[in-house]
Specification:
DUF577 domain-containing protein, about 500 residues, signal, about 60% helix, DUF577, 7 strands
């Protein structure tokens, strides 16, 4: 049992650290996977009480780490209790146990119904929230490709499902249920619009009608459609209503609020709009305008110091969307994604690579010369979104030159092994002011001293105050604490002319 509780403590500690890194959505995604696994498990009632208590204990201990985590943890805890608790234990706490028996009966009842009957239950009014949650997750399981026992559904049933699902979209269900409903809509839409080549008129009309009044839900459903869509019958009518709303909501918020999901959804919605419009005739200007609106909005947020939370959350969502849409991407979609990645820094020209100094210096360059003004015209950046294929030279793909010999580690570090090859941070005349050489595996104290010896007062102040770096300089500097790869990524960064703006460097290219 000691091992079990150590594992429990480890899981809780990891969740806490992930939340502190502003990655609550990552934890929620993991909980959703766990929930799906429990629903799919054939031997649900075969688990022993200790196994359920372990799952329940995890949910109890992580429930306070965030509002979204709380909601997901409560669902799993409720699900676990339905197969775990003894009626006598409930009586000891003053509970009758009827609610748990009712939950079990609900699962058994849903398992005996057809897909159409279950959707009808979800679409009907007067159902308890807890029961509706069970229903929509049962529907998702029946349609999911991950279900090994998924049965083939007749096209006539799919056609009957379509109006019921559109009706469900207009009902005021919780956010968690709406996300599951989005997956259900995707499965039906894929079967009818991609496999059967039948435009889902009802879904199109829903997106058009709700683009203003329920923008966040409409754009979320649109980005759930992970397949190519008919341009004339679906994409263009939807974009005529949705794109102006996306453009308006892409204006960056003035401050970090408790929930800035509106801007994040506008950003991801803009990305989905572009990948569906990019091959539509006469849409080149619209694609370019919305793409640069996305870049400009990100730039403003970075200037306000809001990149750590808000912008990174949007980038993670876009990354998830790319993974889901990847199988249908053609050359143009790939080119757009690549161009976006290369123009996150609007002053960086997509057809150029900064010249890297080729000097093999053993000493740190201590010059205090100021960086030259960064230049880059919008004309050159536009090439990333033009019709001509972007030509990428081998030089742009080369890894940053590493040079210099390995430095000796301080005494007492034998157990750490031999230091890795030294890394250099290059400041070429066009983008940077200095050249800093720090071992890839060294003590924190050494790294701080190296920076102190190279940067002038204003440059050090910029690092100390920037939200991405200031926590590093306040860390304890005992010799036993080592700088590993994560710190090198943080330090491998360029100062730009913009106040409080930083761009990570990969292969010498700002991203």
């Amino acid at each position: 049992m000691d091992l079990v509780w150590r594992l429990l403590s480890f899981i809780v500690e990891v969740v806490s650290e992930v939340v502190q890194l502003d990655m609550e959505e990552f934890v929620v995604l993991g909980l959703e996977y766990l929930e799906s696994f429990l629903f799919r498990d054939k031997d649900f009632y075969g688990y022993i009480n200790n196994q359920w208590k372990f799952v329940s204990s995890i949910m109890y201990k992580i429930r306070e780490f965030g509002s979204k985590i709380t909601e997901a943890a409560r669902r799993i805890h409720r699900f676990v209790r339905s197969g775990n608790e003894d009626p006598q234990e409930n009586e000891d706490r003053g509970e009758s146990g009827n609610a748990n028996i009712s939950d079990r009966e609900c699962f058994e009842h849903l398992n005996s119904l057809s897909l159409l009957e279950i959707v009808g239950i979800f679409a009907s009014d007067g159902q308890e929230e807890k029961y509706k949650d069970m229903v929509i997750r049962r529907i998702q399981l029946l349609l999911s490709d991950e279900n090994r026992n998924k049965a083939e559904i007749d096209v006539s049933v799919m056609r009957k499902l379509q109006p019921l699902l559109v009706s469900c979209l207009t009902k005021g269900v919780s956010e968690s249920m709406f996300k599951v409903l989005g997956e259900v809509v995707y499965h039906v839409a894929y079967e009818m619009m991609h496999v059967r080549d039948e435009t889902w008129i009802g879904l199109r009309d829903y997106l058009v009608a709700q683009s203003k009044t329920e923008f966040q839900r409409a754009v979320y459903i649109f980005q759930c459609l992970k397949m190519p869509l008919d341009e004339q019958e679906f994409v263009i009518p939807v974009m005529e209503s949705l794109l102006p709303e996306i453009n308006t909501r892409l204006n960056p918020p003035s401050e970090v609020l408790v929930d800035n999901s509106g801007w994040v959804l506008a950003f991801t919605g803009a990305f989905c709009a572009v990948i569906h419009l990019i091959e539509v005739e006469d849409s080149a200007e619209s694609v370019k305008d919305i793409a640069y609106k996305m870049i400009g909005s990100v730039r403003e947020l970075v200037e306000k110091g809001m990149e750590v939370g808000l912008v990174m959350r949007a980038f993670r969502d876009v990354e998830s969307i790319v993974k889901k849409h990847l199988e249908w991407f053609t050359t143009n979609e790939y080119k757009f994604v690549k161009a976006m990645a290369r123009t996150k820094n609007p002053s960086f020209q997509v057809d150029e690579t900064p010249q890297i100094e080729e000097e093999n210096e053993e000493e740190v360059n201590c010059g205090d010369e100021e960086s030259n003004e960064e230049s880059g015209s919008e004309e050159e950046a536009n090439e990333g979104f033009g019709d001509k294929e972007e030509q990428v030279s081998d030089k742009e793909e080369e890894e940053v030159e590493r040079s210099g010999s390995e430095e000796e580690e301080e005494e007492g570090s034998d157990e750490e092994g031999e230091a890795l090859e030294s890394l250099k941070m290059y400041f070429s005349p066009k983008y940077y002011t200095k050249q800093i050489k720090i071992q890839s595996r060294c003590f924190i104290k050494e790294a701080v001293e190296a920076i102190d010896n190279v940067l002038n007062g204003n440059e050090k102040l910029w690092f100390y105050q920037h939200p991405q770096f200031k926590h590093f300089f306040h860390m304890h500097v005992e010799k036993k604490h080592k700088v590993m790869g994560m710190w090198m990524l943080l330090l491998h960064t360029a100062i730009t002319e913009k106040n409080r703006e930083a761009w990570f460097i990969v292969n010498g290219v700002p991203i």
